[in-house]
Design a protein that fits this description.
The chain has helices spanning 8-16, 33-43, 83-94, 157-161, 167-191, 230-242, and strands at 28-30, 45-50, 60-65, 68-73, 76-80, 99-103, 109-110, 113-123, 129-138, 153-156, 197-204, 210-216. The protein is an alpha+beta fold.
């Protein structure tokens, strides 16, 4: 079985040490009272997420504007007049577990709902990294995260990007993401020798800049069944069987 790396902190630290990737990884720090304050002062909006967790569970969106503070978990939004009061409320929600604070990326939207892209990258039978699939995930109305297991809607990347780019520009962006996926796979395997597949979660901001939000070393392959082309999932499954995943 491929190696699973559960700690987001460990994986993000590896990415931030890569010269080819560090500029497209949002700044990420460990969560505490001081780091959250500093990140909010600098970026205005951040995400707080558990160091170890899946399916977008336990993720908060936190904002600071006009001297007011707000955080959202799920669909529930809470407003506060003071930072300390908000921090104490968040700390209660995190229950003492290890959390991270990540610079917030204002994601592109599809019909008013945020979306990101999951880039599936695998070792192929020749033991070379290959991007085998890209799929979009559209957040459920009013939700913070895009994850399928948290109500997100799978959708083709071409359909989502096509609302923001020309057909040729979409093709160029997809090729860029495929190359980025391969680079990420190489970087992760160099640090974690047992990693054979990754799911790279890419968020695009309003300038169409791609950001590596997170890397999953046990990505769900079955979401790719939702794509119109069944050949994508068939290849993903075939490669996964070679290294013992399915």
């Amino acid at each position: 079985m491929p190696q699973h790396v559960g700690s987001k902190w460990r994986k993000t630290s590896v990415l931030l040490q890569s010269r080819s990737l560090q500029n497209i990884v949002p700044r990420t720090v460990r969560f505490n009272r001081n780091t959250l304050m500093k990140m909010l002062q600098h970026y205005g909006m951040v995400y707080i997420k558990p160091d170890k967790g899946r399916h977008g569970k336990g993720v908060f969106r936190v904002e600071r504007a006009n001297g007011q503070y707000r955080f959202q978990a799920g669909k529930v939004k809470r407003n506060y007049h003071s930072y300390l009061t908000m921090f104490q409320a968040i700390r209660k929600e995190t229950k003492g577990r290890s959390y991270l604070v990540q610079r917030g990326i204002h994601l592109l939207k599809y019909k008013g709902r945020r979306f990101d892209l999951r880039v599936m990258v695998q070792l192929n039978p020749r033991r070379k990294w290959e991007t085998t699939g890209i799929i979009g995930r559209v957040a459920a109305p009013g939700k913070v995260v895009t994850n399928y297991h948290n109500g997100g809607t799978p959708m083709s990347a071409n359909r989502l990007l096509g609302r923001h780019l020309s057909k040729s520009a979409v093709a160029n962006k997809v090729r860029f993401l495929e190359k980025m996926g391969v680079k990420t796979g190489k970087v992760m395997r160099k640090a974690f020798s047992g990693v054979s597949e990754i799911g790279v979660d890419i968020g695009l901001d309003h300038s169409l800049t791609p950001w590596i939000i997170e890397v999953n070393t046990s990505p769900d392959p079955f979401i790719f069944r939702k794509l119109p082309d069944p050949a994508v999932f068939r290849k993903i499954r075939r490669y996964a069987q070679v290294y013992g995943r399915l």
